Amino acid sequence: MKTEFILVATLMVLLALALVVVPMLRRGRRSGQPRHALVLSLLVLFALPLAALGLYLHVGTPAALNKSALQPQMTLDQAVAKLRAELKQHPDNLQGWLMLGRTYAGTERPALARDAYGKALKLAPDNADIMIAWVEVDAMARADHRIEGQARSLLQRAVKADPRNQRGLWLLGISDYQHGHFADAVLTWRRLQALLQPGSKVAQAVKEQIAMANARAAGKTQKQAMALLSSPASSTSAAAAAKADEGAHIAVRVRLDPKLRDHVKPGDTLYVFAKAQRGPPMPLAVIRLKASALPTTVMLTDGMGMTPAMRLSSVPEVMVTARISHSGQPTAAAGDLEGSAGPISTHAAAPVDVTIDHVH
To answer: How far apart are CA 55 and CA 63, in angstroms?
Structure first.
């Protein structure tokens, strides 16, 4: 088709040139200016074909000369099949595996996306973005959407390699929350919060998640934590919790020494509290949980004080204590189990580890 078109177009141009140039040459001889007529004719000989070609390229359809251009476009599945065939021939094509993974993820085929990202990870095992992409689709592929096992380990590696990766911090906070490590989730999301534009929708969403995690760390149920944010009647409490979250806070990881495991009875109560290193014995922050929650991580904040004047932020350092009470009362009694750590800064960035290791 292309050859026939060119032949026909050439004949038409030659005919047009003949109709224009021949009369011009005759008119030049009659007027006694054959040289001028010849120059003008040569200009027309070159200009007309070039103008016609330029006009066609600008407003015509040159691609129509190729039969392949007239073929229908490939469907997405055909394109994926072609890409897979190419990757079979060239399995070391990192960008190809990433493209395949993104395509599968975008078409809601997470298990296949996970396989593709897995191939990419073998080629770039230290790439944080690929690790996080694998974790995302792995969670999508699971019925419970949990981030655990290999996915959690991979996510922790990614965040360690790229501490400012926002997707990684968001997912790690979700994993912490899913595992009941609410205080760890707060710490992780606070790191993310510091990277976000204040007042943005994403920053607001992270702030709400932090409030939820703080409520859970304080012993509230998921339903109670959600009510804290969604119920109009709880708006004052939510605002107070948000304000407290901005003040002093200490994350405390509590564990029980294995040698005392047999001393814990069903129904025992766990208290975690902070007292001023020097000052009144009244706790500046206290949280009550079931002892069966151990090991656990809790968050002590300004909003957990006994009085408005006695808060974590009112002192520079505190002693942190974890106590298992058999009677359910916060006051220490014979036979209770206890562990302490300190002095601890009331603005400590890292979690504090407390091991319950002795009997009263």
So the answer is: 15
